[in-house]
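Shipment paperwork, digital attachment
Item: protein structure file
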Amino acid sequence: MAVLRPRMPHLSFRSTLLITVLLIAGALGAAAGSGWVMLQDFALASRQAGASALKLSAAMQQIDERSADMERSARQYAVLQAPALRERFDEAYEQAQIALVDIEAELPGAAATTQWRERATLLAPGFNLSAPPADVVDAEPDLASFNDRLAAAVRSHIDQRNTTLLDTLERSRDRLALQVLAAVVLAVLLALAIGWWILRPLKHVERAITRLGEGSFALPVAVGGPADLRQLGDRLEWLRQRMAELETHRNRVLRHVSHELKTPLASLREGIALMQDGVLGGLNVEQLEVSRILDTNARALQERIEQLIGYNATQFDAQHLDLRPTALRALVRDVTADLKLQAKVKDVQINVSGYAPPVRGDAAKLRIALSNLVSNGIAFSPHGGTVRLELSADERTARIDCIDEGPGVAPDEVDRIFEPFFRGTRRAPRPDKGNGLGLAIVREFIAAHGGTARVMPAERGAHFRIELPHAPQAV
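Attachment content:
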């Protein structure tokens, strides 16, 4: 029965993707919102600065115009002493004072405003009776010079405010750039983290399905990640246990049927032998021919039964491995030495090249697998041909490539070439056609080690590749 793990709350695949999208959108949206707020603040400050500049410019223009009226009225009053001129002076003075108040509101404590007010006060008739207005006008600088000072102060204030505004914009732009960069980095990290959390269990699912497809039921299926993927892992674990039970039952039935068939088959062969020996009386030519046919088919049937028993034993052995660090180069040398006589009979050369690091394996089982693979290459090679064994490795696996010069594997038979009792249409140049179990045994033993056996594309001959994971202690 399937082992039920305690249930804990986990997010589903769909919920995980939704939360990830929302988090990424939130991070980018926060950066965009901050940028919008900064833009709004800058626009408001720009409008305020523009309004202030317009107000100051209008006030300065008003002061310039009223200053000219005040000086003109003061000079005329000094000569004509006309009350209308004084009224005109007072009216211009009041309007200038209103504009000056606006400037002082923007430039509090400015010395130019104080100087302008003092000079304007001296011009006011009746404010300084000891000195006639004409004398005051002639003795002090005119209001135009004070207007220039006041205008310079106003321009300096506007320039300083514009500079401050530009500095604020520069700082806001830099801060916004950092926020956008942080949001992008956060989004990438979230995407990578969630991708790893989701893809890792998917790889476990893929490997589990591959093992089940290869008939390896020893390792339990454990899948983490989102809740629906965990549920899928539980179903795969149930399927693994169910398939293991079915495989055990199949092997048991096969052993029972094979045993039950061997007993009557042995009796049948004994009866045929008695007939051929004439114990039951002489046989004519036709009867002898029939007895020979019966004997041939009985032997073939017995051979098939023994092959079934042998293959069944191979599957059992593949599940019981004595794993130890195994040097592939030495193992390949031993296999080629064992097959030296078989290769010599067909005048086939076996070349070994390359190097592969040690693997964690059962040396006896790997030796059987390699022997079947190399023996297959020798059997299908023409007389005088060559079988090449090339060892290599990458970061995770050690490889053994077996390449012969025979007829090769038909493209439409690649997927079936490792099936038990399957013999391809491209036959070996030998009387013995084989039983179709050699490559099946290769796949069984290699898959039991966590490796793969497959057919590679080849322009000539057959190219088989075995891949085995490195031993943990291999450097």
